[in-house]
Amino acid sequence: MSNKRTPLFNHHQKCGAKIVDFAGWEMPIQYTGILAEHKSVREKVGLFDVSHMGQIFVTGPETVEFLSYVTTWDMQRQKIGDCRYCHVLDDDGHIIDDTIVYTLSKEKYMLIPNASKVSEIYDWFILNSKRFEVSIDNLSDDYFCLALQGPQAPRLLGQHLNVSVGSFQLVTIGDTIVSGTGYTGEKGCEIIGPLKEVVDHWEALVEMGAEPIGLGARDTLRLEKGYLLSGQDFNGGQTTLETGYSWVIDWKHDFIGKEALLKIKSTGHQKLCGILIEERGIIRPGNELYYDGKLISQLTSGTLSPTLRRGIGMAYADLDINDLVTVKVRGNNLNGRVVRMPFL
Predict the structure, then answer these.
(1) Which one, of 324, 318, 328, lies nearest residue 338 by Cα?
(2) Closest CA to 126 of 117, 118, 136, 116
(3) Strands 176-179 and 294-305
(4) Is the alpha carbon torsion for 280, 286, 288, 289 positive or negative?
């Protein structure tokens, strides 16, 4: 079965992008180079094609109750125009996916699952919707998503669509949704709309000065901010508590996985630690982590931070801040320590 392509595939090729397989999609990993693209987003403005991400719409009179049940957040607390990052859990409290929920109206919400999780989330929602009066539609094939990120992003957005948007807020322009969200930790937005309109948005923003950015820089940018990557930092065996993202849980409402989390909370658990390398060297996911000479874990994420010029990574372990560790890379031990995240 051949991989999927977004409508911008030819544009990526024209820009000299290196194409890779990502979650069943042919996606650009870099154009001019990861370090240069990373710097562009931190200092200026970059444009990401993230149209491989999903769009699931939930509508109906019991949408709020349903989404509160299948996510870690109580959607009663959301106002129209709010966006909320939360987790979708299984019955054992393990993360199926992390997602952003968009409040379009009192009875209409949109969720953006990760590309590899769209079908699983849709099926999970259908399975758990039987006692709720809701409709669930997977419209991922009908929508694009562009991420405009960096200090200059608000200016370009204003020039392009004559709107501004606050952090984790959204505005609608016809069928287009503009949200103050992203995966880089910089100012910016995501533009979501009918697939047929994506080329016009892409070409206009690039002409205004937005630099095309690939998935390689997207990964280094998100890791500097300590953001989770689906399939690496959680892969079906970790809970929200272990990731250190307990702030996405509203404990005052009932949701799938709550009972399991309460038990884990009372008995203790490992946690996702930030690892900063103190000497030269690049670390990667899967590298072994040692403490006091003993193998205790493996890195779930790891890279060279273009901003810090140091190796940074994550690993699940029972360690404290400033504990000294070593990471084995190609037979060599790199010295590091546990630090608080985000790294920047």
Answers:
(1) 324
(2) 136
(3) unpaired
(4) positive
Residue 197: phi and psi, rounded to 5, are -100, -5
Domains, the chain, with CATH or none: 9-54+141-224 (3.30.1360.120), 56-138 (3.30.70.1400), 240-339 (2.40.30.110)
- Enumerate residues 6+ apart whose C-beta is below 8 A from 115: 22, 23, 24, 25, 52, 53, 54
Evaluate whether 28 touches 19 at the Cβ level (below 8 Å): yes
The answer to whether the CB of 239 falls within 8 A of the CB of 96 is no
Q: Is the pLDDT of residue 336 over 60?
A: yes
Looking at the chain, the whole-number percentage of residues with pLDDT higher than 90 is: 99
- Residue 38 C-alpha from the chain's centroid: 16
Question: Is residue 284 a contact partner of residue 329, using CB atoms and an 8 Å limit?
Answer: yes
SS3 at position 294: strand
The yes-or-no verdict on residue 1 having pLDDT over 70 is no
Write the CA distances from 4 to 52, 194, 223, 261, integer angstroms: 8, 17, 26, 37
* pLDDT (average), residues 274-282: 96
Cα–Cα distance measured from residue 160 to residue 253, given in angstroms and rounded to the nearest whole number: 41
Q: Which residue has the tokens 């390398």?
A: 277
Enclosing H/E stretch for 40:
helix 34-43
- The three-state secondary structure class of 98 is strand
- pTM for the full predicted model: 0.96
- Model confidence at 339, pLDDT cuts 50, 70, 90, reads very high
The dihedrals phi and psi of 296, each to the nearest 5 degrees, come to -120, -20
Q: Where are the alpha helices (DSSP H) in 44-102?
A: 63-70
> Using an 8 Å Cβ cutoff, are 301 and 271 in contact?
no
Q: Give the torsion sign (CA, 233, 239, 240, 242).
A: negative
Scored b (16 or more CB within 10 A) or e, 299-321 reads bbbbbbbbeeebbbbbbbbebee
pLDDT for 54 equals 98
